[in-house]
Amino acid sequence: MGSTSGEGQLPARREAAHVFHFQQAADQGRWADAVAALERLLEAAADYPSAAQRLEQARARRQVADLQADLRRRHKARQWAAVLAASEQLTALDPAAADPDGTGGGLRMFWVIDSALVGVIAEGSDGTTMDAWFRKWAYVVSSGD
């Protein structure tokens, strides 16, 4: 007896499930899950239309999302040099995503104003916190000194 029509549909259903999981994860901004779904799809059907291209795009989006999360974490921890580094990486990858919540742009502005001083303070080499430096800077600017 020959194969039933249902046997040929099993791979197509698996492919459709991987595509569904990818789309759902991508719509929710869960890029690690989106990448995993596309990788499973390509394992099941290496020639699936546009899957390789979508995987490349999802990996790029995952990298941006990871850097944004790192930037926010470092900003909260007041690790200013790391904030600047993550912001610069984001700018190189995706300028539109480079300053989530304004966490990097303001700091970059001060870096331009006095890169040598901010660099020293951001590294903490003189024991001065960035907040103390900003207060001193704001006083100098407001008093005209």
Notes on the structure:
- It is a single chain.
- The relative contact order is 0.07.
- The chain is built from 7 helices and no strands.
- The chain has a domain at 78-145.
- It starts with a helix and ends with a helix.
- Mean pLDDT is 74; it is low at 108-118 and 140-145.
- It is mostly helical and 145 residues long.
- Helix content is 75%, strand content 0%.
The largest β sheet comes out as: none
Percentage of residues assigned to helices: over 70%
- Termini gap: 94 Å
Q: Which residue ranges are poorly predicted, with pLDDT under 50 across at least 5 consecutive positions?
A: 108-118, 140-145
Q: What average pLDDT do the residues reach?
A: 74
Write the H/E string, N to C.
HHHHHHH
Q: What structural class results from the helix and strand content?
A: mainly alpha
Round the Cα radius of gyration to an integer and report it: 24 Å
Number of strands: 0
Put simply, the count of helices is 7
Shape: elongated
What percentage of amino acids are in beta strands? under 5%
